[in-house]
Design a protein that fits this description.
Blueprint (H helix, E strand, L loop, with lengths): L1 E3 L1 H10 L3 E8 L5 E8 L8 E3 L4 H4 L2 E8 L2 E7 L5 E2 L5 E3 L1
Parallel strand pairs: 1-5, 2-4
Antiparallel strand pairs: 2-3, 3-8, 5-6, 7-8
Length: 93
């Protein structure tokens, strides 16, 4: 359903108490936004809990943990998106 890169798995294990959550909400430049948080719900994959409503938006996605000069973050690589804003925070399907 969703793939975690090695970097993402390692990061999620380090911060995974409580588990990291991924939800999708309406908004942003392109229509939908990824929303990261924490939860005590049982993880879906690794230490990541995926909101059941968000599943239809992220099926087939890869989650990566990126470390750059400006900071580090979890990145969703979504092959299903038809548009994405410049900052990568919102998407359309």
């Amino acid at each position: 359903m969703i793939i975690l890169t090695e970097n993402a798995e390692k990061y999620l294990q380090e911060v995974g108490d409580p588990n990291v959550s991924l939800t999708v909400k309406g908004g942003g430049c392109s229509g939908f936004q990824y929303e990261w948080g924490t939860t005590n719900n049982s993880p879906t994959v690794g230490n990541l809990w995926l909101d059941p409503i968000a599943e239809m938006f992220v099926i087939g996605c890869t989650v990566d943990y990126v470390q750059e000069l400006g900071g580090s973050y979890l990145k969703v690589i979504n092959p299903n998106s038809t548009a994405q804003c410049g900052c990568g925070e919102s998407f359309a399907i």
